[in-house]
Design a protein that fits this description.
alpha/beta, Rossmann fold, five-stranded parallel beta sheet, about 40% helix
Length: about 450
């Protein structure tokens, strides 16, 4: 799998590490065992490396050491053999970082309420690594962030002692590209972009990822690699905003935007299909663009295009509510206040148990603020987990998708189109369906009780 490259590794410590990576004897430490870190830890272990996963959540480490999973698309049957073979172990003891050859940082990078980068997890992790850093280690940041983070935040923290990047240890950035639930492109099948603090760090990081993924792509610096990640997600954010705006326009004209997109995508060039929805979710697309807008202010540059896309996408939940209010009034003669609303799907995308930044949470808040009585059904998320933006919703549980619950609701709002949901059952029993995913049509249901939103 490894690609042949002309290596710039010349120092003794770098040569030793390169040899350990090539022989798969390098010990890998992965900090942060969430949707990015856990699949990466499994992949390195499957490729023959000894992996220690670090996390402050003892619940996660205990489950992993017992061979169990807490992420739906990474089953225990994948984890247990790795644990039993001694290739994967989880720990909350960060003193064990000293025994690692390569340390990969996969911690969250959320936004503050003011839409400013919150790098506290990255900064705290770098400080913790610095306490145990030793000569010859490779440290790689994977967390999504603005260009300059590796050089301006991570490197100074690691160099707080006597050790120096390029001379004593090696530092690189390689953006995560995970797509939870994607059965075609798992971690191993997605090329990795790598930028190093110096050529030796770059080549060591390339060699490390060449050992486990289909292809690596060298970048000239960590900042360039950081910019790659933001560019990928800004591209998606802007295009989703475009189709969301088209949805509103075409709806006013009596045109089905879903039919327009399906027809447009038959063109073999010059068009790529993106689809509208009730708002953006997940850790990347709703957040990453604002990392660049924040950094651009440092250079006196206004990111009008990116911020406009953000405004359109964040306005979608309110548009959905407006469609729901109108439909309730016209179809049932009811006001939203006091109405029973059943939300279908809490996850931010289909077939995953990830509710980070899910528009469903915003919709619940908006509906209840206007006096509606809201329940939700999600076959994958049994209860709402604590979140920074919606802590008051934590603990609410999914209701059963039954004929009685569907008939009791004044309106059913489809937010997430999990494959495990029987949408024809919804069609048969719901009085009114507000469909934000075009799922009823794709399920073959054409009833008059469906309103696209």
């Amino acid at each position: 799998m490894a690609q042949k490259r002309n290596s710039t590794v010349t120092s003794k410590s770098a040569k030793l590490l390169m040899a350990r990576i090539a022989a798969r004897k390098a010990k890998i430490g992965i900090i942060g065992l969430g949707y990015v870190g856990l699949p990466l830890a499994c992949l390195f272990a499957e490729k023959g490396f000894a992996v220690t996963g670090f996390d402050v959540d003892a619940g996660k480490t205990d489950k992993l050491n017992a061979g169990r999973s807490y992420i739906r698309h990474i089953p225990g049957r994948r984890i247990a053999p790795l644990v039993n073979a001694g290739k994967l172990v989880a720990s909350a003891d960060f003193r064990r970082l000293k025994a690692m050859d390569c340390i990969i940082i996969c911690v969250p990078t959320p936004l503050s309420k003011q839409r400013e980068p919150d790098l506290s997890f990255v900064a705290d992790t770098a400080i913790e690594i610095a306490r145990h850093l030793k000569t010859g280690q490779l440290v790689v940041l994977e967390s999504s962030t603005y260009p300059g983070t590796t050089d301006e935040v991570v490197r100074p923290a690691l160099e707080a002692g006597k050790l120096r990047s390029r001379r004593d240890f090696f530092l690189a950035y390689s953006p995560e590209r995970e797509d939870p639930g994607n059965e075609t492109y798992g971690t191993a099948a997605i090329p990795k972009v790598v930028g190093g603090d110096g050529e030796a760090a770059r080549d060591l990081a390339l060699a490390l990822y060449d050992s486990v993924v289909v292809k690596t792509v060298p970048a000239t610096s960590p900042a360039t690699a950081e910019a790659v990640k933001l560019t990928e997600n800004i591209f998606r954010s802007v295009n989703i905003a475009l189709v969301n705006e088209l949805k509103v326009i075409f709806d006013a004209m009596g045109i089905d935007v879903w039919e327009v997109i399906d027809a447009a995508k038959t063109k073999p060039f010059g068009f790529m299909p993106f689809y509208p929805g009730p708002g953006l979710g997940g850790h990347c697309i709703p957040i990453d663009p604002f990392y660049l807008t924040w950094k651009a202010r440092e250079f006196g540059i206004a990111t009008r295009f990116i911020e406009l896309a953000g405004e359109i996408n964040t306005a979608m939940p309110r548009y959905v509510i407006d469609r729901l209010v109108t439909a309730l009034s016209e179809r049932a003669g009811k006001a939203l206040k006091g109405a029973r609303i059943l939300i279908i799907g809490l996850a931010y995308k289909k077939n995953v148990d990830d509710m980070r930044e899910s528009p469903a949470l915003t919709l619940i808040d908006l509906l209840e603020a206007q006096g509606a009585k809201v329940d939700y059904h999600d076959p994958i998320i049994a209860a709402i987990k604590p979140s920074r933006e919606h802590p008051h919703l934590a603990g609410r549980r999914s209701v059963k998708l039954s004929a009685a619950n569907l008939k009791r609701a004044d309106a059913v709002l489809i937010v997430t189109d999990h494959d495990a949901i029987d949408f024809k059952e919804i069609g048969r029993n719901a009085k009114l369906i507000i469909d934000t995913r075009n799922k009823m049509a794709r399920a073959g249901w054409r009833g008059r009780n469906v309103i696209k939103a």
